[in-house]
Design a protein that fits this description.
This protein has 9 helices and 11 strands. By secondary structure, it is an alpha/beta fold. Helix 5 links the parallel strand 4 (about 130-135) and strand 5 (about 150-155).
Length: about 300
């Protein structure tokens, strides 16, 4: 049913998805990326269930073989994240982040529930040495998220009308978020490339043309290409994939395209490194409107 309604809605979204022209406006005082690179590239993964946990190493090996690194964001209470998996990822240059507790849609349903789960998340942030967070289903209240002991957040997007909260931040650049609790600002890193689940699961795409089109536009405007891919939905063998899965070759083809089309032109880093770079350069520029994201 979601597929049916989304496909019917597509013709009415052409002016803002996958590209919203407004999002190309550069931040005030923008001086570019390190070493004069044309754009930034950040790869992230949200692990939704045990199937995704079982596939994390395959995703990591694929990226290592192609010269990439990424972050893996895990749920804390829906499944168990093995210590040896976290250590494997960190040892090989990947980053581990937190994706909430349960993925049940309740974290932002009340302040009481949010604070209860925030205690759990902050404990794991300290135990795991985590720097970043992404809210399940991109449910986002940046003011509340400021209660998390994080350096950066990944819970927004430049444009994505297919999410439960479809309000985008309309920028392909990082931005600073002020905390109402008096603690230091944190960095917001919106995803700017459509999620794999949107393209291949909901819309049923069987090529990477939309990814390529959006990447070219981001590169042309010198922005940040931040992608969220789910290990849960990738199939790595020849078995027939389910209705919510797609062959991993679509992802590897996109990584190959990046290497071939933009060799030596992009600043590729982990989200925590990009956040720290942005703070070092633009730490006082908490000037992005946040009203639309407070619910």
């Amino acid at each position: 049913m979601r597929r049916f309604f989304l496909r019917r809605a597509l013709p009415n979204l052409e002016s803002t998805w996958p590209i919203d022209p407004v999002a190309s406006q550069k931040p005030e005082g923008w001086a570019g990326w390190p070493d004069g690179k044309q754009f930034a590239l950040v790869l992230t993964h949200d692990v939704e269930n045990q199937r995704g946990v079982n596939r994390c190493r395959q995703v990591a090996r694929l990226e290592m073989e192609m010269g990439f690194q990424s972050s893996f964001n895990f749920l804390l209470k829906k499944y168990t994240t093995p210590d040896d998996l976290r250590l494997y990822l960190e040892k090989n240059g990947f980053e581990v982040g937190i994706h909430g507790c349960y993925h049940d849609g309740l974290k932002f349903s009340s302040r009481e529930i949010f604070l209860e789960r925030t205690k759990i998340i902050n404990r794991y942030i300290e135990e795991w040495g985590v720097s970043g967070f992404r809210a399940p289903s991109m449910q986002c209240n940046l003011d509340w998220i400021g209660d998390l002991n994080i350096e950066y957040d990944l819970s927004t997007f430049d444009t994505d009308p297919f999410e439960p909260n479809s309000s985008g931040v309309q920028t392909i650049y990082p931005f600073m978020v002020s905390r109402s609790n008096g603690k230091s600002d944190f960095v917001e890193l919106p995803y700017t490339l459509p999620q794999d689940s949107t393209l291949f699961v909901l819309l049923g795409e069987r090529n990477i043309d939309i990814w390529k089109k959006k990447l070219d536009w981001i590169a042309e405007n010198g922005g940040m290409a931040l992608l969220n891919v789910h290990p849960d939905y990738m199939v790595f063998d020849d078995t027939r994939h389910g209705i919510d899965e797609y062959p991993y070759q679509l992802y590897s083809e996109f990584l190959r395209h990046i290497n071939e089309r933009y060799e030596n032109q992009y600043y590729h880093c982990l989200p925590r490194d990009l956040a720290r770079y942005f703070v070092s350069q633009y730490g006082g520029a908490a000037n992005q409107p946040q009203e639309k994201l407070q619910s």
